[in-house]
Specification:
- The complex is a heterodimer of chains A (about 120) and B (about 140).
- Chain A contains four helices and no strands.
- With about 120 residues, chain A is mainly alpha-helical.
- Chain A has one domain: Fumarate reductase/succinate dehydrogenase, transmembrane subunit (3 helical TM bundles of succinate and fumarate reductases, Up-down Bundle).
- In chain A, helix 3 packs antiparallel against helix 4.
- Chain A starts with 8 loop residues before the first helix and ends with a helix.
- Chain B is an all-alpha fold and about 140 residues long.
- Chain B has a domain of about 60 residues.
- Chain B contains four helices and two strands.
- A two-stranded antiparallel ribbon of chain B has the order 1-2.
- The longest helix of chain B is centred in the N-terminal third of the chain and has 31 residues.
- The chains are: A mainly alpha (about 120), B mainly alpha (about 140).
- At the A-B interface, helix 1, helix 2, helix 3 and helix 4 of A face helix 1, helix 2, helix 3 and helix 4 of B.
């Protein structure tokens, strides 16, 4: 027997949260390792060219609108992935209830992070 | 909450009580919890990238200070830990994807290993492109 499809605003919000979680999971899985390796390890180890991270060069790279869109997605999507997973980790691993507060805290933090990213990348750089 | 049987007798439902450390008891549970915790490291990497761009936006002095921070040994150690966590996320995410994405050709399903190979190729290609633009372009 096929169950009726969930409808209503709550189902819509949950579907959006899950879609962002999934997109964030892919962004984090495919793109984050190389970024962490470059900024976190390769720079300090001296594996990058001398002027790779110079102010002028990076500023020029980041002034490209496509680069800005890429960076906004790269920074904000994993936050939604974290929000979704951490929310359920709080309930299932840490045994804490307070469902509405936890959900608002987690997804709200991701929204704040997205806002910060858009502000810094598009209005401050 | 108590269901009634055919004669109208009702029975209480049994809800077993789990200790909060249930996920520490067995290997598979611990690995599952580790997978979920890697999301915190992904978020930390995102925040670090944002801090990098914020330092860039504040001018050459602030940016150089951030680069000196990247050079410090504790930052490298933290990045190494984050890298391991993020790679664990990648591996478990690819495996998870093979459970969700089932590709059928004709009457048969493609083996999940094929999907992992395709995702890994995409991952390597994207990493190479990012590294090129980040360091050598």
């Amino acid at each position: 027997m096929r169950l009726p499809r969930a409808r209503g605003p709550r189902a819509l919000v949950e579907a959006m949260a899950w879609a962002l979680f999934s997109a964030g999971g892919f962004a984090a899985a495919i793109l984050l390792p190389i970024h962490v390796a470059i900024l976190g390890i390769a720079y300090a180890a001296g594996w990058l060219p001398d002027d790779a991270l110079s102010y002028a060069r990076i500023h020029h790279l980041v002034s490209n609108p496509l680069a800005r869109l890429y960076l906004t997605a790269l920074i904000s999507l994993p936050l939604y992935h974290w929000a979704h997973r951490f929310r359920f980790a709080i309930h299932h691993q840490f045994g804490i209830g307070l469902k509405r507060m936890v959900a608002v805290g987690c997804y709200g933090s991701a929204l704040v992070g997205t806002g910060l990213a858009v502000w810094i990348i598009f209005f401050r750089l | 909450m108590t269901p009634d049987d055919a004669e109208g007798r009702s029975y209480p439902l049994y809800f077993p009580k789990y200790p909060r450390s249930w996920w520490l008891r067995k290997g598979p549970y611990r690995r599952f919890a580790a997978r979920e915790i890697t999301s915190m490291f992904s978020a930390a990497a995102s925040v670090t990238l944002l801090a990098f761009l914020f330092a860039l936006s504040r001018g050459p002095q602030a940016y150089d200070a951030f680069l000196r921070l990247l050079d410090s040994p504790w930052m490298v150690a933290a990045s190494a830990v984050t890298l391991v966590a993020v790679l664990y996320h990648t591996a478990t995410w690819f495996r998870l994807t093979t459970h969700i994405v089932v590709i059928r050709v004709g009457g048969r399903t493609l083996p999940p290993g094929l999907l992992i190979v395709a995702l890994s190729v995409a991952w390597l290609g994207a990493s190479a492109a990012v590294a090129y633009f980040h360091g050598w372009f």
